[in-house]
Amino acid sequence: MKTITFIAALFLTGVTFAQNTFGDIIGTFTSPDKKEGIFGAYAVTTRGEQVFKAVTDEDGRFRISAIPAGSYRVYFIFEGDTTYSKQLVEVAPDGFGDNGLVAQAKSTEIPEIVISEPIYRLTKGVAPEIKLTKKDIVHMPAKFNAKQLVASMTSEVKLTDDGQLIFRGARKGDVINYIDGVKMTDVQNVPSAALGYVMVYSGAIPAKYGDTTGGVVVMETLSYFDLLREYNNRP
């Protein structure tokens, strides 16, 4: 009975945290001349067999909500025509990727797929955090040591000589580390090639991450769909 209760508790904890790894995609869909927003168009993106969509408002703006963190491409359906966004949008947990302004393609246009650098912003009411994506991690000198990587992300975190992290003057090692929703009491090394995101909260920590006077490090590894998109978008 104790074993069943323990497994159920782990499952519920995983489900609760998984809900916190979602983000949004925002943007604006306009007429071909970019002078007017298009009302009532479907903004759609997919992840495997899952479909996420939203409807543009009177200004052409949209927000696709509750999307698992990862890389996405958005397309728009309006009056039987489909317009593809030119950029790949990166959605981070608890934040959103900005797809920017997309003009409706003319019926004779063939969409040109261009991967550009995404823009990251935080939604209102979300505590500020320092964030690294896979593209950033690849170029970090400290990418092979998780604690050194965290310490290099912000001046509010120091790494002591004995390998302990100190957040804003808190006690040594007073840190919570989440890896794909699993809570750890210390920052664990994860192969840098497997990391999709690393986020550091050094202050104003959301209650959902637990009780700590130090900081929180959230790591999310690449999913199958992230690796598949990377493979499909290779030169």
Notes on the protein architecture:
This protein is an alpha+beta fold. The chain folds into two domains: 2-122, Immunoglobulins (Immunoglobulin-like); 130-226, Beta Complex (Ferric Hydroxamate Uptake Protein, Chain A, domain 1). 17% of the residues lie in helices and 37% in strands. It has four helices and 17 strands. It has helices at 2-18, 134-138, 146-153, 224-232, and strands at 22-30, 42-47, 50-55, 61-68, 70-72, 75-78, 81-84, 89-91, 95-103, 119-122, 130-133, 157-159, 165-167, 175-179, 182-184, 195-201, 215-221. The strands form five sheets. The chain has a five-stranded mixed β-sheet. A hairpin with a 5-residue loop joins strand 12 and strand 13.
Radius of gyration: 20 Å
CATH architecture of the largest domain: Sandwich
Name the strands of the widest sheet in spatial order: 11-16-17-14-15
Q: By CATH's scheme, which homologous superfamily of the largest domain applies?
A: Immunoglobulins
Supply the number of helical segments.
4
Characterize the largest beta sheet: strand count, sense, and whether it forms a barrel.
5 strands, mixed
Q: Unreliable stretches, pLDDT < 50, 5 or more residues?
A: 4-19, 115-127
Structural class: alpha+beta
Q: How much strand content do the residues show? A: 35-45%
Shape: elongated
In which range does the helix fraction lie? 10-25%
* Element order: H for helix, E for strand: HEEEEEEEEEEEHHEEEEEEH
On the 0 to 100 scale, the average pLDDT is 77
Measured distance between first and last alpha carbons: 54 Å
CATH topology of the largest domain: Immunoglobulin-like
The count of β-strands is 17
Total tally of structural domains = 2
Which class of the largest domain in CATH terms? Answer: Mainly Beta
